[in-house]
Design brief:
Layout (H helix, E strand, L loop, with lengths): L6 E4 L4 E4 L9 E4 L4 E6 L6 E3 L6 E3 L14 E6 L4 E3 L12 E7 L2 E8 L2 E8 L6 E10 L5 E14 L1 H4 L3 H7 L2 E4 L2 E4 L9 E7 L5 E5 H5 L9 H5 L12 E11 L4 E12 L13 H9 L2 H19 L2 E4 L3 H21 L14 E2 H7 L8 H12 L11 E2 L17 H16 L8 E2 L9 E2 H13 L44 E2 H20 L3 H21 L9 E2 L5 E2 L9 E2 H9 L8 H13 E2 L2 E2 L2 E2 L25 E2 L3 H10 L3 H11 L8 H4 L7 E4 L10 E4 L4 H13 L2 E4 L2 E4 L9 E8 L2 E9 L6 E5 L2 E2 L4 E3 L7 E8 L1
Bound molecules: beta-D-glucopyranose (BGC) and 1-deoxynojirimycin.
Beta-D-glucopyranose binds next to loops.
């Protein structure tokens, strides 16, 4: 165990342990993995929601607040004799705790502390199968004398719609409604009107008092750090009527020396079916029952089944390599982050406010790639939901709301790479499961009844959409933007109130993307394999031709001599070329063209990768472009609005780094691939937490590039395609274990100084025990089953009944 300034990894318990509360930024975790979700920081900040952080927000949170990270799942402990109080989670009182520990685990967080010999430990968990969160407080008196304590809980309710909640005060100050029965606080603003749902906050103990009106609890002009009720030790039993409903319980407790006690609090969401929404007051029986059932034994059970759930998921792919950072990320944290991105896309983190972005079409189709092997059934559902937001044109809504599953009108469509990602997620699903029936599922277009067509046709539409939109160089037109949301070549915005993503001042018939060209070929190649699975060999001809044509267009117009060009702008000029003054080279086309196989034979791939190494790579990772733009260019859009080194303008935009790792592995450079992997691996960066600043157990979207004064500083942690792609790069390409239509393929491209590695992978119901030994310095691997060498690198599916296979691999 290596305890650094802010904490350490506890690999055995699959936890990151934070040992001081004042981390450089709040280091957060997620509770819940089904419908009920919470974000929780290392000092108990954060909020909860049901399915949709925008439309069903349970508790309020103020982003960009000062001091930072105020508002959360708070408890106050008051020594009634000494009239002194503190927060066992440090915030909000920030009292000087004698000991503090926060354990972020998979789906739970435990914060413990000592203050003047009173020990408190709170375990926060969302049990599987329930729409509620449990706070389990264990409190122990280590003093020589007995102590008279008051415990106050507090959460602030959000009036459901988080956008309206933060804006429409003239109405909202009048609508808040609470009901209290048997010590359970029900938040029921708009309940029985347009809503069939309410929240409840309950406590296992009988109450000394309660509060539900914020001002009564805090006192006027006071903050969370010194509520009047806690200071005086007396709840006011307030009943919120308008203004700002909160939930606060007051429990009194005498603890003898060495005595301990458990208190359980539950915050939950309940939805009546719509017909029952007008049930009379007091009939919310289900919740009262739920509240009673939650006792310490049930909490232990819930905790055990959550751990079990995760252990089963993590068992599907497990590795033991010579590198601890690889093991830790592959076995624990990377799949965990992938689950969160899979569930929440880019909607709710400490950088994504939960109100601005829903489920991204491009994003979620990519997120699926890294979680497919763990939850194929859920992946299937998600694929079908995404496909249903495709438009009849083949284009797609850029985002949808998880609650309604309908495309977001305000952002619309025309991000021309979007439809292609659907082909990639479907093909990954097919390889993982072999379930070709998904292709026949009838799926609507634009969620309109009557428009159903087989999913297979959706894929055809996706490809057709690109094929029908080629520009002057026969390369795909870029539309509003491709993967790089900030390369807005048709936007020409001179008005700060316009959105870079949706404004379109040019017709869009000229600007082209070499990145989409590469992605198009990659998608076509996958689609051709799908056609082969369907025995539709005749149809492959057309798509092969499209791929060949696009390949020629890239080689003719997309090759700059030392690297791939990025795009052509609205005037037909190159972007990402040595001819440009700024933005001469971009990472995206180097990654995706090579991944699509473009230029490998011609030696362009090697050249492009050399250029990446000499022009874009830094010790903190590979930058998105160089040199960054030093001023705003109206014909380039948002990218040039960022200061050099930040975000798309030359930061290490981590999402794209694995594309280069994959490309390096494809051309046989195991050392280089793994070196790039390590540069952005959060665990490997733990020792530089003061520079990196974000969580050391989770990937961040960006790390400031070399042109920024904060070079090496990460931002936008958690919700990023970085998570999925890193797991793909390291497992499928560096470790080389990939699902295919014909069986599990194994062809590692590992560093030269690795003696080998071991892995287990459950694939289509069979557990493969893989043992890899390096006997030479190259990349040629030979596969043995029961000491008998097989031909090629794909282990054929075993006959049914065999559910375990032992594979030896020798690399020469
Ligand atoms: C960000 C992008 C993001 C886009 C859409 C831009 O400001 O830089 O990373 O994808 O907004 O929300
Ligand atoms: C974040 C967005 O979620 C993603 O869709 C996009 O590809 C990247 N930013 C790059 O702009």
């Amino acid at each position: 165990m290596n305890i650094l300034k802010y904490g350490y990894f506890d690999d055995e318990n699959k936890e990151y342990v934070i040992t001081r509360p004042d981390t450089p930024l709040p280091w957060i975790n997620y509770l819940g993995c089904e419908s009920y979700f919470g974000i929780i920081s290392n000092t108990a900040g954060g909020y909860s929601f049901y399915k949709d952080a925008r439309l069903r927000r349970l508790t309020r949170y103020r982003y960009n607040n000062v001091p930072t990270d105020f508002g959360g799942r708070y408890l106050y402990i008051r020594d009634n004799k000494k009239k002194e109080f503190w927060s066992p989670t440090w915030q909000p009182t920030r009292s000087k705790l004698e000991q503090y520990k926060c354990r972020h685990g998979l789906g739970y967080t435990i914060i413990s502390s000592f203050y003047k010999k009173i020990e408190a430990k709170i375990r926060y968990i969302v049990p599987l199968g329930d729409n509620l969160e449990i706070w389990q407080l264990s409190i122990k008196n280590h003093r020589k004398n007995s102590v008279d304590l008051s415990i106050f809980s507090c959460i602030e309710f959000c009036l459901w719609n988080a956008i309206d909640d933060s804006a429409n005060f003239q109405r909202n100050f009048n609508t808040g409604e609470i009901e209290i029965e048997d010590g359970v606080i029900y938040h029921k603003t708009e309940y029985r009107e347009r809503r069939n749902h309410f929240a409840f906050f309950a406590c296992s103990e009988s109450l000394e008092g309660f509060d539900t009106q914020r001002e009564n609890f805090l006192g006027s002009y006071r903050g969370w750090e010194n509520p009047i009720v806690v200071e005086s030790g007396q709840s006011s039993n307030s009943n919120a009527f308008g203004w700002s409903p909160i939930g606060s319980h007051h429990i009194n407790l005498i603890l003898n020396p060495n005595e301990s006690k458990q208190i359980i609090l539950i915050l939950g969401y309940h939805e009546n079916n719509v017909d029952n929404k007008f049930d009379p007051i007091g009939t919310q029986k289900i919740n009262k029952k739920t509240v009673k059932e939650v006792n310490p034994i049930n909490v232990e059970k819930a905790f055990a089944s959550l751990n079990n759930y995760w252990n089963n998921l993590l068992n599907i792919f497990h590795v033991n390599t010579p590198d601890i950072h690889t093991n830790r990320m592959v076995n624990i944290w990377n799949p965990y982050q992938n689950m969160i991105t899979f569930k929440l896309s880019r909607s709710a983190s400490f950088f994504e406010s939960g109100i601005s972005r829903g489920i991204g079409f491009r994003d979620s189709n990519q997120d699926l790639l890294g979680f497919m092997h763990m939850v194929p059934t859920e992946a299937k559902k998600q694929i079908l939901d995404l496909a249903a937001t495709q438009l009849i044109t083949g284009g797609a809504y850029h985002q949808y709301q998880p609650l309604t599953k309908k495309g977001n009108q305000d952002i619309g469509s025309e991000f021309n790479d979007d439809p292609l990602w659907l082909v990639l997620s479907v093909s990954a699903y097919l390889k993982e499961t072999g379930d070709l029936s998904i292709l026949d599922e009838l799926v609507q277009f634009n969620n309109e009844p009557g428009t159903e067509q087989p999913l297979f046709n959706h894929l055809q539409c996706s490809l057709q959409y690109i094929h029908d939109r080629l520009g002057p160089h026969d390369l795909p037109l870029i539309g509003r933007a491709d993967w790089n949301d900030c390369l807005n070549l048709n936007c020409f915005s001179d008005n700060p109130d316009q959105s870079f993503q949706t404004t379109k001042n040019k017709e869009g018939k000229v600007a082209e993307s070499v990145f989409i060209a590469g992605l198009f070929i990659a998608a076509l190649k996958e689609f051709i394999k799908i056609l082969k699975q369907k025995n539709s060999l005749d149809e492959t001809k057309l798509y092969l031709e499209w791929a060949e044509n696009m390949n020629s267009a890239i080689l003719k117009y997309g090759w700059d001599g030392e690297w791939f060009v990025r795009a052509y702008d609205n005037f037909g000029n190159k972007i990402g070329s040595h001819e440009c003054e700024e933005g001469q080279i971009f990472i995206e086309p180097q990654g995706y063209c090579i991944m699509a196989g473009v230029g490998i034979e011609e030696g362009f791939a090697e050249k492009a990768l050399n250029s990446v190494k000499s022009k874009l790579a830094t010790p903190h990772g590979i930058m998105l472009c160089q040199p960054p733009y030093s001023q705003y260019y109206i014909h380039l859009g948002e990218i040039s609005s960022y200061p050099p080194g930040y975000k798309e303008n030359g930061s290490i935009f981590c999402h794209t780094n694995p594309w280069i790792m994959i490309a390096e592995a494809m051309v046989g450079h195991g050392d280089q691939a793994h070196d790039y992997y390590t540069r952005i691996n959060p665990s490997a960066r733990e020792t530089i937490s003061e520079v990196h600043r974000c969580e050391p157990y989770i990937y961040a979207q960006m790390i400031a590039g070399k042109d920024a004064p904060t070079f090496g500083e990460a931002k936008n942690s958690w919700l990023t395609g970085t998570a999925t792609w890193n797991l793909i790069a390291v497992t499928n390409w560096i470790l080389g274990i990939r699902p295919t239509y014909n069986g599990l393929s194994i062809s590692p491209v590992i560093p030269k100084n690795w003696s080998g590695f071991k892995a287990t992978r459950i694939f289509r119901g069979v557990k493969y025990h893989i043992s890899v030994e390096r006997i030479g310095t190259g990349n040629r691997s030979m596969l043995y089953i029961n000491e008998k060498q097989i031909e090629g690198n794909i282990i054929p599916f075993p006959p049914s009944g065999i559910n375990e296979m032992f594979i030896d691999v020798k690399i020469t």
